[in-house]
């Protein structure tokens, strides 16, 4: 056993931190920290900076522009980004579409998509879920018809994050009714500006706009936009899940919350918060820090471990805990602010803009409830926590 | 970072699991013999004193197995802890009469007597006193909850002399030593020990002052961490036992294991066990740090987290066994008892959370 980061890993982390200090625009970091949903144009400068540095696609194979980092280095990178309030860049394109094309895509598709994705010219959304296919993804219905060199799609996607900003959808569609349901699915790259694509926003509890419904009516896409072999969509999705074991653990985000809490509490004390109340909050904070430390080491164990049979269960465990801890961390901030969080707030409300903050709300208040409500989704997307518990049971104990 | 265990560690773990599974329920003395024969008494001690120079990680592996087997031998308290105290003194230049060799060779076991009626912190004001009289030193006071105390040949007693903490080695058969032995909730042997003007030869006063205070903190942090390793073993064993039981027990015409509520409950037990193990590794890693206070805080944090996980897992293990879990004849409840004792021994979660909180004293004032 070697329970410490190597000197090389430590040096790497410092290099990343220096880069973040230089290249991450402070105004963007502040906006990200506040926690309202960012727009494509907000994130663009940061995407450019990562691209120029050659760090935009760490998870890709090196010959397609990946960095060649070890899993541990990727973790250190993501953690440092989280702590520094760097926003996530075009997650679906970089963590999903890219790796799938690298592994399964034709040369023509790689040629068309990989470089524009890396440059930040193409944004993707993920069209998997449908009204009748949530946890049971194999029930996807979205129909396809092959006509000459084209595929014609008809279907209804829902909960599609950022469909309103995306250039393309990676769409999970039914290409066969033979065999088991999961054996008849394919991934298809679908341009969002194609005729017959209708996007309808869905308002969420947090008050932001992230997700949408997408209706596909006789949408025609070229046959070559189908990724890899026909009917291999399920295998491709599984491949992705196996690679992104620890992304949903949110270690960087959790560290961000922990790092800023003492400051937030101090400001509340200065503004008159009762010392006894602060003591209770601090106790919860310390307890949470210990939970996060244990959680972080669960992630490290997953990264370093290449042989364990517990890998799959471990990945599900950190997904569950990541979402639970995020909710706790964000709710602790809400608690510390007390009644300041009652007024509905928007990103436009700041002490300096035309739309002022309500009188009772200090500068720390905007975004706190929004973010805390949003984190409930972390227990739902990417396989709900109930589904994860099912996976844990069946990998470890089922006979 | 590399979590793979070495071949030697695997051998240690597998041997311990096999031997302890066979020995569970046998008498304490027989097992101390095995501990010596297997080299475990030598494990925490350096080669210079006939030890094997095992690492803290090695010890953690062994302790996990002791927890898993619900072993009653007070190995942590009467071998590892005194060894760590003596090592701490040695590293501060204090010579000792080769008690380390005695421990390593398994010739004697030494109880560590720290706790008192009015809970004193290490470095704080112990009421047990060592006083110089014209006819030599005398020890007077009372120590509580000395694990394995009645079964040892001698005790390392923490006392105060002229306002300084000191460590005194007292044979159990010395004049004026009164022992009241009793069992803990989990069956381990404890003792309260009274010292009524016990005559102490000068050579038995092993050390005084800062060296003792520091060695106590250091050994305390190690003991706390290894106690958590024991709990990790205990909770994993109770989880596995429960999974097994759900496969066997039939109700409503099917295996209990077919009910999803129980499956998800088992998943939660895995999550808790997994986090406790992660916390243990995180704490073992912290022992690479030079600063003693950082190690102490890390160990305190470990106790807070691991004790909570152990209570959750061993408690639900009882629940999922139904009434059978409540019986003393069946093993699963004994893991709950073991966690309850461990939870309170060496300071409970509230105590150690307060240690962690002291770190943030600047914020809430
Ligand atoms: C903010 C947000 C963003 C999203 N973004 C996207 C996106 O970009 N693209 C996309 O394709 N999808 C997206 N999703 C959808 C997400 O993947 C689904 O919501 C998720 O898979 C669950 O499906 P469902 O909502 O239909 O819930 P259901 O599957 O209907 O589940 C409802 C409840 O029942 C439980 N449940 C279901 N099956 C079982 C079972 N077998 N055993 C026990 N309990 C069960 C669930 O855990 C849940 O609590 C997003 C969701 C949210 C909230």
Helix-strand topology string of chain A: HHHHHHEEEEEEEHHHHHH
Strand order of the largest sheet of chain A: 2-3-7-6
Considering DSSP H and I runs of 4 or more, what fraction of the residues of chain A is helical?
A: 40-55%
Proportion of helical residues of chain B: 40-55%
Terminal CA distance of chain B reads: 39 Å
Which key features would you list for this structure?
heterodimer, A: 399 residues, alpha+beta, Butyryl-CoA Dehydrogenase, subunit A, domain 2, 3 domains, 4-stranded antiparallel beta sheet, 7 strands, B: 365 residues, Butyryl-Coa Dehydrogenase, subunit A, domain 1, Butyryl-CoA Dehydrogenase, subunit A, domain 3, 4-stranded mixed beta sheet, 49% helix, binds flavin-adenine dinucleotide
What does this protein structure show overall?
The complex is a heterodimer of chains A (399) and B (365). Chain A has 399 residues and is α+β, with helices and mostly antiparallel strands. Chain A folds into three domains: 7-89, no CATH class; 124-231, Beta Barrel (Butyryl-CoA Dehydrogenase, subunit A, domain 2); 245-397, Butyryl-CoA Dehydrogenase, subunit A, domain 3 (Up-down Bundle), CATH 1.20.140. Helix content of chain A is 47%, strand content 13%. Chain A has twelve helices and seven strands. Chain A has helices at 7-23, 26-34, 40-53, 71-83, 91-104, 107-119, 233-243, 251-270, 275-304, 311-337, 368-374, 385-396, and strands at 124-127, 143-147, 150-158, 168-174, 185-191, 197-202, 211-222. In chain A, strands 2-3-7-6 form a four-stranded antiparallel beta sheet, with no helix packed on it. A three-stranded mixed beta sheet of chain A has the order 1-4-5, covered by helices on one side. The longest helix of chain A has 30 residues, at 275-304. Chain A is globular, with a radius of gyration of 22 Å. Chain B is of the alpha+beta class and 365 residues long. Chain B folds into three domains: 7-104, Acyl-CoA dehydrogenase/oxidase, N-terminal domain (Butyryl-Coa Dehydrogenase, subunit A, domain 1, Orthogonal Bundle), CATH 1.10.540; 110-208, Butyryl-CoA Dehydrogenase, subunit A, domain 2 (Beta Barrel); 212-364, Up-down Bundle (Butyryl-CoA Dehydrogenase, subunit A, domain 3). Chain B has helices at 7-23, 28-37, 56-68, 75-90, 99-104, 210-248, 260-286, 292-319, 332-344, 349-358, and strands at 110-113, 129-133, 136-147, 154-161, 164-171, 177-183, 189-200, 205-208, 250-251, 254-255. In chain B, helix 6 packs antiparallel against helix 9 (332-344) and helix 7 packs antiparallel against helix 8. The longest helix of chain B has 39 residues, at 210-248. The two termini of chain B are 39 Å apart. The chains are: A alpha+beta (399), B alpha+beta (365). At the A-B interface, helix 8, helix 9, helix 10 and helix 12 of A face helix 6, helix 7, helix 8 and helix 10 of B.
């Amino acid at each position: 056993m070697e329970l410490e980061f190597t000197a090389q890993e430590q040096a790497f982390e410092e290099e990343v931190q220096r880069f973040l200090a230089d290249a991450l625009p402070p105004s963007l970091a502040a906006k990200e920290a506040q926690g309202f949903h960012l727009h494509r144009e907000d994130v663009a400068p940061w995407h450019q900076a990562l691209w120029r540095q050659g760090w935009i696609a760490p998870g890709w194979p090196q010959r397609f522009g990946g960095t060649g980092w070890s899993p541990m280095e990727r973790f250190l990178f993501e953690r440092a980004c989280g702590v520094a309030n760097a926003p996530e860049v075009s997650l679906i394109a970089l963590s999903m579409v890219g790796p799938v094309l690298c592994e399964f895509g034709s040369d023509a598709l790689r040629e068309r998509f990989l470089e524009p994705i890396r440059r930040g010219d193409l944004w993707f959304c993920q069209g998997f879920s449908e009204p009748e296919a949530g946890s049971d993804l194999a029930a996807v219905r979205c129909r396809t018809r092959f006509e000459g060199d084209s595929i014609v799609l008809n279907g209804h996607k829902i909960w599609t994050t950022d469909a309103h900003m995306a250039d393309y959808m990676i769409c999970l569609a039914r290409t066969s009714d033979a065999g088991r349901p999961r054996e008849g699915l394919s991934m298809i790259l679908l341009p969002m500006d194609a005729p017959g694509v209708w996007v309808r926003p869905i308002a969420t509890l947090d008050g932001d706009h992230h997700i949408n419904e997408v209706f596909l009516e006789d949408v025609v896409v070229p046959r070559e936009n189908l990724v890899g072999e026909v009917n291999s969509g399920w295998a491709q999705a599984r491949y992705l899940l196996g690679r992104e074991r620890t992304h949903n653990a949110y270690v960087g985000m959790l560290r961000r919350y922990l790092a800023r809490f003492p400051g937030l509490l101090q400001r509340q004390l200065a503004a008159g918060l009762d010392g006894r109340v602060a003591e209770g909050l601090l106790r919860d904070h310390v307890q949470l820090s210990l939970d996060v430390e244990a959680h972080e080491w669960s992630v490290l164990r997953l990264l370093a471990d290449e042989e364990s049979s517990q890998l799959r269960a471990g990945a599900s465990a950190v997904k569950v805990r990541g979402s639970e801890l995020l909710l706790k961390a964000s709710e602790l901030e809400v608690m510390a602010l007390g009644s300041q969080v009652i007024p509905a707030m928007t990103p436009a409300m700041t002490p300096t803009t035309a739309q002022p903050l309500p009188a009772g709300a200090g500068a720390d208040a905007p975004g706190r409830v929004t973010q805390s409500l949003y984190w409930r989704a972390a227990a739902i997307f990417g396989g709900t926590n109930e589904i994860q518990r099912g996976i844990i049971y069946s990998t470890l104990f089922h006979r | 970072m590399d979590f793979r265990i070495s071949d030697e560690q695997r051998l240690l773990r597998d041997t311990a699991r096999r031997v302890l599974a066979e020995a569970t329920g046998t008498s304490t003395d027989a097992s101390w013999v095995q501990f010596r024969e297997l080299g475990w008494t030598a494990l925490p001690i350096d080669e210079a004193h006939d030890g094997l120079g095992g690492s803290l990680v090695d010890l953690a592996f062994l302790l996990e197995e002791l927890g898993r087997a619900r072993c009653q031998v007070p190995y942590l308290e009467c071998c590892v802890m005194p060894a760590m105290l003596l090592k701490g003194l040695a590293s501060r230049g204090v010579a000792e009469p080769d008690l380390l060799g005695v421990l390593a060779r398994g010739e004697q076991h030494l109880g560590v007597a720290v706790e008192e009626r009015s809970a004193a912190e290490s470095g704080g004001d112990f009421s047990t006193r060592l006083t110089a009289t014209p006819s030599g030193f005398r020890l007077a006071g009372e120590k509580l909850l000395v694990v394995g105390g009645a079964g040892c040949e001698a005790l390392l007693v923490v006392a105060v002399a002229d306002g300084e903490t000191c460590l005194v080695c007292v044979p159990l058969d010395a004049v004026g030593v009164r022992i009241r032995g009793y069992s803990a909730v989990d069956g381990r042997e404890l003792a309260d020990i009274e010292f009524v003007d016990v005559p102490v030869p000068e050579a038995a006063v092993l050390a005084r002052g800062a060296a003792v205070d520091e060695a106590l903190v250091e050994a305390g942090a190690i003991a706390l961490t290894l106690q958590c390793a024991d709990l990790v073993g205990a909770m994993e064993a109770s989880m596995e036992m429960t999974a097994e039981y759900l496969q066997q027990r039939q109700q409503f015409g099917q295996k209990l294991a077919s009910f999803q509520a129980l499956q998800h409950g088992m998943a939660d037990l895995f999550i808790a066990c997994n986090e406790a193990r992660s916390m243990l590794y995180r704490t073992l890693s912290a022992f690479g740090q030079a600063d003693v206070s950082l190690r102490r805080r890390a160990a305190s944090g470990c106790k807070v987290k691991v004790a909570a996980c152990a209570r959750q897992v061993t408690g639900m293990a009882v629940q999922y066994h139904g009434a059978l879990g409540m019986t003393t004849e069946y093993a699963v409840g004994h893991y709950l008892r073991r966690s309850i004792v461990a939870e309170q021994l060496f300071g409970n979660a509230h105590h150690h959370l307060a240690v962690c909180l002291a770190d943030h004293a600047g914020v809430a004032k």
